[in-house]
Amino acid sequence: MKTYAIIGGNGVFGIHTALYLLANADPKKVICIGRNPEKPEPFTLNLGKGDDRYSYHQIHMVFEHDRMMELLDAEKPDIIINYAAIAEPALSFKHSARYYDSNVMAVARLCEDLMARDYLERFIQIGTSELYGSTERASREDDPLKPTTPYAVSKAAADMHLDSLFNVLKFPMNIVRPSNAYAPGQLLYRIIPKTVVFGLTGRKLPLQGGGKARKSYIHARDLAHALHLVIEKAPLGTTYNVGPPEPTSIRDLVIKTAQAMDKTLEDVAEEAPDRLGQDSQYWLDSSAIARDTGWKMEIGLDEGIAEMVEWGRTYLDFLKDYTADYDWRA
After folding, report:
1. Cα–Cα distance measured from residue 274 to residue 208, given in angstroms and rounded to the nearest whole number
2. d(CA 14, CA 18)
3. Does residue 234 carry a pLDDT above 80?
4. Do the beta carbons of residue 183 and residue 12 sit within 8 Å?
5. Predicted confidence band of residue 58 (pLDDT cuts 50, 70, 90)
6. CB-CB contact of 111 with 158 (8 Å)
7. CA–CA separation, 174 vs 166, rounded Å?
8. What is the pLDDT of residue 330?
9. Residue 166, H or E segment
10. Where are the beta strands (DSSP E) in the chain?
11. 16 pLDDT exceeds 80?
């Protein structure tokens, strides 16, 4: 039985990973660490309620590194999964130093200290599809990195740092680069939950650039399944892309979400200027993780969107007044 620590565990993907591990990995403990207090039920989905294997700890990875190491040394996790990052690309042009503090320096500091410990079996760094830049075909793990925003640069730098630690010092790590993930509990500034809540409340979301950018969307449970398989089966030091076979335009994604609520695109969206630094397409080749672990995507986009609409309706009394803007915090 393993103890898992999830850094960035108060975000939707950390929450779904914790839920998945508690249900499928027979863990000794699942410890989530995040910089903010635990979110209300619509975002945490009752994670850990009544389960003494789960605990949450509010610790800031950048500013409270010593406290975090004290917790890790006390719990001695076998597996650490790091989701923690500042991840809004457009703002990274304005606050690039903060992005590098969180996404590069904090990771380097953490791994430097972990190398002096003997309890860690595997460190999983969550990367991003954005570091490949805009692509005309599905990106492979060995493709050149072409980040176009300070956010993507910071994620590329962290990955390259971890590669060097493994290649020279055999630090036990893997990197998983998912496509755009979504799930019930996602904050409302993201496109699918925003479309759901705006559609259910009669508002219109700004469709940046008309939604022409194409991205790949994966449900957080499929991502959690991929992480579990990497932990159990993958050789150390490997990097894996995780995403669906084909990308989808944001416009088509919004149309699908509107249709799931018996609405039209015009009912839920209006055109707006494009996002600063927006790439035209993110698309991942996931054949390596399929080959090495047997992973395959199980939740189709239509099924996942239907689940998002059900979540929106269940918690609409709370969500209708919740902010749909990105809350900048360093």
Report:
1. 4
2. 6
3. yes
4. yes
5. very high
6. no
7. 9
8. 62
9. helix 150-169
10. 3-7, 29-34, 54-58, 79-82, 122-126, 173-178, 180-182, 205-208, 214-215, 217-219, 239-242, 248-249, 269-272
11. yes
